[in-house]
Design goal:
Blueprint lengths: L1 E9 L3 H19 L2 E6 L4 H7 L5 H9 L2 E6 L14 H11 L4 E7 L12 H4 L4 E7 L9 E6 L2 E6 L5 H16 L4 E6 L5 H14 L6 E6 H10 L6 E4 L1 H13 L8 E5 L5 E5 L16 H14 L3 H16 L16 H10 L2
Helix pairs in contact: 1-10, 1-12, 6-7, 8-9, 10-11, 11-12
The protein binds nicotinamide-adenine-dinucleotide.
The site of nicotinamide-adenine-dinucleotide has 22 residues, from helix 4.
Length: 355
């Protein structure tokens, strides 16, 4: 197969980790007889420096014309003083919106060889962590109107949260379909005791559930969910929730599995084109030092193979290579438990060798 991939290297450690993911994709292409072509799409702080905006139209066009998009991470202290509308992450929000990516999928899985990195009590970790957070991505308060005004001599800020039925329904379907391929249990997270948006969320998710009688549906308030994720994560299979709650819970979920450097994510809309990235940021503190763990980005590339290109065997090969490298003791600094430490380049090489 021939597939075109838009590549957003981004800022900080972005170019290093994306470089290793591309090396792994090239190893897959060589082994399975595919051709991947890469098309650079500058975004983030480097795009502000070069083009004055975080997402130039030319980059957006590249992303919209390729079969899928691979992203490192954007942002860094150099661009913190940019006006809100021109910050690096604005580029990402614009890209998600323009690509119609309404679902973000984040697996939270503990690697057996890294259980020592799990910050939870060992008896809790021993029950296993293997669930997926399905987050609504282009609705809710992040996409409502924002304003700051002066009222009675003091500043007053307002952010509007809104959801329409169709925005809830489509992401609920993604969650139920995913549950069918897993342990058939969906936990829908909301704050229906307080928010109208959540009451609508709960009603629509319940309606969608009727189309999936083979999948169990539970409802949970977000404050309880935040607690349950650390109290007993083994109870979860698929969590579905709105944008703001999903942002927070998916970070919590990935943290309990060990290093932030290990977790991929995919963002999907209608059709097969997706945006694949690690969950972490641009880690400016270790940028350019060959210290970044590229596994999150490499596993994001595996998700691209599986979900966008329908290459299950190829995705399995990447995930197995990562597992094998970990089993053989390969560790970057963030997951090292004593012993030799590999750099970003060394870890990429170790995984390529095991494809
Ligand atoms: P971060 O995720 O970049 O870093 C948090 C900590 O984790 C740091 O100590 C970092 O060194 C470490 N870390 C992160 N990824 C790692 C990896 N692959 N290997 C080893 N260690 C890793 O979060 P932050 O420091 O809050 O944010 C830094 C910048 O990234 C900010 O400008 C922020 O806006 C941006 N950011 C971008 C995205 C994105 O592009 N999707 C997401 C989150 C944050």
């Amino acid at each position: 197969m021939n597939k075109s991939i838009a590549v957003i290297r981004g800022d900080g450690i972005g170019p290093e980790i994306v470089g290793e993911a591309i090396r792994v994709l090239d190893a897959v292409a060589a082994k399975f007889g595919h051709t991947f072509t890469y098309h650079e799409a500058p975004m983030g702080g480097n795009a502000i420096d070069a083009f004055g905006v975080p997402l130039p139209d030319s980059s957006l066009e590249t992303c919209l014309s390729c079969d899928s998009v691979l992203l490192g991470a954007v942002g860094g202290p150099k661009w913190d003083a940019q006006p809100p509308a021109n910050r690096p992450e604005r580029g990402l929000l614009r890209l998600r919106s323009a690509m119609g990516l309404y679902t973000n999928i984040r697996p939270a899985r503990m690697f057996a060889d890294l259980s020592a990195a799990c910050p939870l009590r060992s008896d809790i970790a021993a029950r296993g962590i293997d669930f997926v957070v399905v987050r609504e991505l282009i609705g809710g308060v992040y996409f409502g109107s924002h304003s700051t005004e002066t009222v009675d001599g003091e500043q007053k800020a307002t952010d509007i949260m809104s959801y329409s039925e169709h925005e809830i329904r489509r992401v609920a379907h993604v969650a139920f379909q995913m549950a069918r391929k897993r342990r058939r249990r969906v936990t829908s997270v909301d704050k229906a005791n307080v928010l109208d948006c959540s009451r609508l969320w709960r009603r629509v998710v319940t309606e969608v559930a009727a189309e999936y009688p083979d999948v169990e549906l539970l409802h949970m308030y977000v404050d309880n969910a935040a607690m349950q994720i650390v109290r007993d994560p083994s109870q979860f299979d698929v969590i579905v929730t709105e944008n703001l709650f999903g942002d927070i819970l998916s970070d919590e979920a990935s943290q309990i599995t060990g290093s932030i450097g290990m977790i991929p994510s995919s963002s999907m809309g209608e059709g097969t084109r997706g945006l694949y990235e690690p969950i972490h940021g641009s880690a400016p503190d270790i940028a350019g030092q060959d210290k970044a763990n590229p596994i999150g980005t490499i596993l994001a590339a595996a998700m691209m193979l599986r979900y966008s290109f329908d290459m299950a065997a190829e995705a399995d090969a990447v995930e197995a290579a990562v597992d094998a490298a970990l089993k053989d003791g390969c560790r970057c600094g963030d997951i090292a438990q004593g012993g030799a430490v590999l750099g970003c380049r060394g870890m990429g090489e170790a995984i390529c060798q095991r494809i």
